Amino acid sequence: MTSFTPDFRHLIRLSDDTGLFEHARHAVARRQHGYCTDDVARGLVVVSREPTPSPRLIRLSECYLTFLTHAQDRYGAFHNRLGFDRRWRDPPGLGDWWGRAMWGLGTAAARHASPWIREEALAAFVAGAGQRSSHPRAMAFAGLGAAEVLRAAPDSAVAAALLTHAADSVGPSAEDPFWPWPEPSLTYANAALAEVLVAAGELSGDRPLLDRGIRLLTWLCDVQTRLDRFSVVATAGWRRDEPRDRYDQQPIEVAALTDACATAALATGDPAWLDEVRRAADWFQGANDASAPMWDPATGGGYDGLTEHGPNLNQGAESTLALISTMQHARALP
């Protein structure tokens, strides 16, 4: 990786003709753990963002899109876990994986370089857009897919309805200025909740909603900054008025912040948000609590977590996709 150039080598290594392997031992895919819709959907997001994808990346797009349409049932819900034997391990549902599948499909429908992939992805998106999840993060992820569709097709009523419901599912902000977050704790993919408010406010012309999303994202960036570096909430989470663990930090949290800050920059035109995108990219390059690079130059893979002893050297799909996603945003920095 030169500067902030996305590196797809390890994503290709983790993919076969079925999908994207979830886990790896160092850089070697662990086939016994199979595939999951969560990661395949994230994979479709990043390959769809490439303006001039190589033939190999287009092939990945086809594979990931086929996986998602195979995972989707006739009601629009999705299976999540597929074994290496190509048998589903769970019934279709509306958990986070449904939201991420909708995000991937919406991004492909709006951005992919191949017209036929855009068309097929939109059909699958519409098939799932009538569903609603009881989980706020699942709704936020789906809302981000709806926002992608709306930017490409502003008259899409089904996408507009889904985005509105996604923003509503975030819930009201807390009244405490020291903890305005709508939940009593920070858990995972927190920035997606702020991002969907920003996107919904921008695309609907609802300035108070946009401002609310910006306030939450500003607070989230502030509480996850230490010595001018991102220090994201660890896997244990952080509950209001309780001590906060410093480790184990996950790359997906940095990627979620990057996505949200890039959306804020687009919605507001404020270049200060691009500084946050740069800080997120720097986290992967070593500007973190362990002063350690969070990717392997030999493989292009992203490390699975930041511990007090340095990186977890396993290079699974989630962390590698977080690396690629962040570098895609950073690539456009002035």
Structural write-up:
With 334 residues, the protein is mainly alpha-helical. It has a domain of 181 residues: Glycosyltransferase, CATH 1.50.10. The chain has twelve helices and ten strands. The strands form five sheets. Strands 1-2 form a two-stranded antiparallel ribbon. Strands 3-4 form a two-stranded antiparallel sheet. Strands 5-8 form a two-stranded antiparallel sheet. Helix 2 packs antiparallel against helix 3 and helix 6 runs antiparallel to helix 7. The chain is globular, with a radius of gyration of 18 Å. The mean pLDDT is 97.
Q: What is the CATH domain class of the domain at 1-16 and 170-334? A: Mainly Alpha
- Class by SSE composition: mainly alpha
Return residue spans where pLDDT drops below 50 for at least 5 consecutive residues: none
Strand content of the residues, in percent? 5-15%
Describe the main β-sheet briefly.
2 strands, antiparallel
**CATH architectural designation of the domain at 1-16 and 170-334:** Alpha/alpha barrel
Distance between the termini: 18 Å
What general form does the structure show? globular
Quantity of strands, as a count? 10
User: Count of helical segments?
Assistant: 12
